[in-house]
Recover the amino acids of this structure.
């Protein structure tokens, strides 16, 4: 019987009910799924390494005998570090495991058992070691032809030999000897990529790529290790290509839409506002604004992302963009993710724009009943020219008169639907999204690949670098002493805790209890407490008092995280900093260093904190630049963290790596955009299967 790409896995020779269950658990249901279960590494059997010759940083494969299997507790936690000690005549090397690959994994090893270890050799605290290597049992001689062999994620109930046999069967019948023709079924492996793209970018056919990723070519051994083999390149290209094609089509869609161009050459209100400011715009603010003004002159709606590090002055860019359209008789709106932030923008807008005769409204969930009705009425009449708010803005009863600019601040906090709802408050309004979560260039091209991007890569003058320290909890009293000194000098402070309520399982400091302690510690100052469980009115009240310096020390949970701007605050203490991710830490630190005072950020670490948490703290100490931190984060943990809800398109990467495969990403992007410019609606015959695939993958119906 022939095998097709959609042949259920249990019909493949050698796969019984038991094995098909093992596969099913890994999400492998068909022959095609199996081919897309890529090796996680390769092992070069020819390299006759001995342990003493191993070099740090190499991915290597070495033969040896098991000398000892042991485990020790990890810090004070209940987890254990397992170690398999391997030796040969030249030396010995530990293999460390911080988790158990599967139950019974370590019990398999017997002392004196001959094994082959493959992994990257690292040095940690002066000890050369492998961490989570692949360890295979060697029984008898290793066959000669297996000079370069693929390694798959270790799976209980599926031996490497068995897996290899099944994969080879599929490759033989689906790729090497596919059925020649069958009107009812798809034969072989479909390849939607147009020929011209394959030849321009020198790409293998898809079936060959799938074959050679599982049956590696020994003469390309070095390339396989670096993910640069032809087969890997083609499959990585594919992963990027589909995403980029989706984005290119989206972008083409924006450009097709029509809107009223807004040409404001005089910019009278803008000049008036600029004259009143106590500072001048930074070059980067200036540049971003020019890009925004130019976009709005077009007859199709702007879709632009303003990316700027925390404190780079994005609010002003938003307000000036709003003024640009307001002056021409239109309305603008700014949506922010939290009430604290919406309130802050509103106060700012009122202060700066009302003197110019601009009417500003605030809409949050706090504005209710009659008051809300009235505000909505005036929005609909066009009396309010700028409307600032939270999610409360996207409710049905909010109807604009002439909305031509929709701005979303801290856009990563919003979902796709919310963004789209705001956009639909106008008739193809210009659309500006802002984020203070810096994203490395590679990531921007994938996540925001449909948007034009302005980068504010310059901080206002006079800012001093924030001094960052990470300290263990035994230094807490010193830290609080220092904090007291700063407050005595007239500054204000933040103390941030990860949780509101004490949780039994995690012995975390509780912001509420700690607040009382801190108030006792500083009887001469007013301490405030801010957390998510407070009513909005209470939150606003506290924030306003903090802004007016009626509160000197603000104890808070992460509700303070985004956007809040109090330039007089110059010290931030983050308790249990091990509980926070890098981008969150960066956001938190961004609450200080906003004025001209020298600023400090202290990351408190508990003794139990993991090595990763300590590394994160170190990254924070080392870098102030959000882009650098984002890059470190991306390398350490992959793209998940800073993307918020926009990450859907990235979840599917199996092989591609945004850091390592930058070059391929650029090529895939170029190819996708080229394709869309040649055939904007994918109408050509040669692009039909591609169009279908795109619709399948992204539900992106091409009209
Ligand atoms: P973010 O980019 O994090 O949203 P904000 O817009 O809150 O930053 O601005 C941070 C602070 O910098 C605010 O107090 C703002 O008034 C001030 N600011 C903005 N632009 C400038 C500038 N060009 N020069 C000096 N200060 C500025
Ligand atoms: Mg902001």
């Amino acid at each position: 019987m022939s095998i097709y790409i959609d042949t259920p896995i249990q019909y493949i020779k050698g796969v019984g009910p038991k094995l098909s269950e093992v596969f099913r658990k890994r999400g492998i249901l068909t022959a095609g799924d199996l081919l897309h279960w890529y090796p996680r590494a390769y092992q070069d059997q020819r390299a006759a390494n001995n342990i003493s010759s191993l070099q740090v940083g190499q991915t290597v494969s070495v033969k040896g005998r098991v000398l000892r299997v042991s485990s020790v507790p990890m810090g004070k936690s209940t987890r254990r570090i397992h170690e398999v000690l391997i030796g040969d005549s030249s030396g010995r090397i530990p293999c460390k495991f911080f988790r158990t690959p599967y139950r019974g994994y370590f019990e398999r090893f017997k002392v004196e058992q001959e094994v082959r270890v493959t992994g990257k050799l690292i040095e940690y605290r002066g000890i050369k070691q492998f961490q989570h290597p692949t360890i295979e049992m060697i029984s008898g001689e290793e066959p000669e032809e297996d000079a370069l062999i693929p390694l798959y994620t270790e799976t209980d109930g599926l031996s490497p030999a068995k897996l290899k046999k099944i994969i080879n069967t599929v490759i033989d019948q689906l790729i090497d000897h596919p059925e020649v023709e069958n009107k009812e079924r798809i034969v072989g492996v479909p390849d939607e990529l147009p020929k011209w793209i394959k030849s321009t970018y020198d790409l293998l056919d898809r079936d060959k790529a799938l074959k050679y990723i599982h049956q590696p070519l020994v003469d390309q051994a070095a390339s396989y290790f670096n993910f640069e083999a032809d087969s890997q390149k083609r499959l990585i290209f594919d992963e990027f290509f589909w995403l980029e094609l989706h984005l290119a089509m989206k972008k083409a869609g924006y450009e097709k839409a029509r809107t009223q161009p807004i040409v404001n050459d005089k910019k009278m209100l803008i000049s008036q506002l600029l004259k009143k400011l106590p500072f001048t715009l930074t070059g980067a603010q200036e540049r971003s604004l020019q890009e925004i003004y130019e976009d709005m002159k077009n007859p199709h709606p702007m879709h632009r992302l303003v990316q700027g590090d925390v404190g780079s002055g994005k609010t002003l860019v938003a307000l000036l963009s709003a003024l640009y359209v307001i002056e021409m008789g239109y309305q603008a709106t700014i949506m922010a993710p939290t009430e604290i932030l919406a309130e802050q923008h509103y106060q700012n807008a009122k202060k700066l724009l009302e003197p110019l005769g601009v009417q500003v409204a605030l809409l949050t969930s706090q504005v209710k009943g009659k008051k809300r009705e009235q505000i909505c009425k005036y929005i609909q009449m066009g009396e309010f020219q700028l409307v600032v708010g939270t999610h409360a803005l996207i409710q049905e009863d909010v109807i604009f008169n002439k909305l031509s600019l929709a701005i979303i601040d801290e856009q990563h906090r919003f979902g796709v639907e919310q963004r789209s709802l705001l956009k639909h408050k106008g008739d193809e309004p210009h659309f500006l999204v802002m984020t203070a979560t810096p994203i490395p260039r590679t990531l921007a091209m994938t996540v925001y690949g449909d948007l034009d991007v302005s980068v504010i890569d310059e901080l206002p003058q006079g800012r001093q670098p924030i001094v960052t320290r990470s300290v263990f909890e035994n230094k807490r009293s010193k830290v609080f002493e220092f904090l007291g000194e700063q407050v005595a000098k007239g500054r204000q402070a933040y103390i941030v805790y990860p949780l509101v309520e004490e949780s039994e399982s995690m012995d975390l400091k509780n912001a509420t209890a700690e607040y009382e302690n801190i108030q006792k510690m500083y009887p001469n100052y007013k301490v405030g407490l801010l957390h998510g469980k407070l009513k909005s009115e209470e939150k606003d009240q506290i924030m306003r008092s903090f802004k007016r310096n009626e509160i000197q020390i603000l104890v808070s949970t992460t509700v303070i995280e985004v956007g809040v701007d109090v330039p007089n605050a110059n010290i931030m203490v983050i308790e249990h900093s091990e509980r926070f991710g890098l981008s969150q830490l960066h956001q938190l630190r961004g609450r200080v260093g906003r004025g001209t005072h020298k600023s400090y950020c202290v990351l408190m670490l508990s003794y139990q904190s993991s090595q990763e948490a300590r590394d994160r703290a170190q990254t924070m100490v080392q870098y102030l630049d959000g882009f650098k931190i984002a890059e470190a984060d991306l390398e350490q943990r992959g793209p998940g963290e800073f993307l918020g809800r926009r990450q859907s398109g990235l979840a599917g990467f199996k092989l591609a790596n945004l850091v390592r495969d930058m070059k391929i990403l650029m090529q895939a992007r170029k190819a996708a955009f080229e394709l869309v410019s040649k055939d904007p609606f994918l109408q050509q015959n040669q692009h039909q299967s591609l169009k279908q695939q795109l619709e399948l993958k992204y539900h992106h119906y091409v009209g």
Summary: The pocket of adenosine-5'-diphosphate (ligand 1) is lined by residues 279, 281-282, 285, 308, 310-316, 436, 460, 563, 565, 567, 594 (CB under 6 Å). Residues 504-508, 644-649 have pLDDT under 50 and may be disordered. The longest strand covers residues 59-73. The radius of gyration is 30 Å.
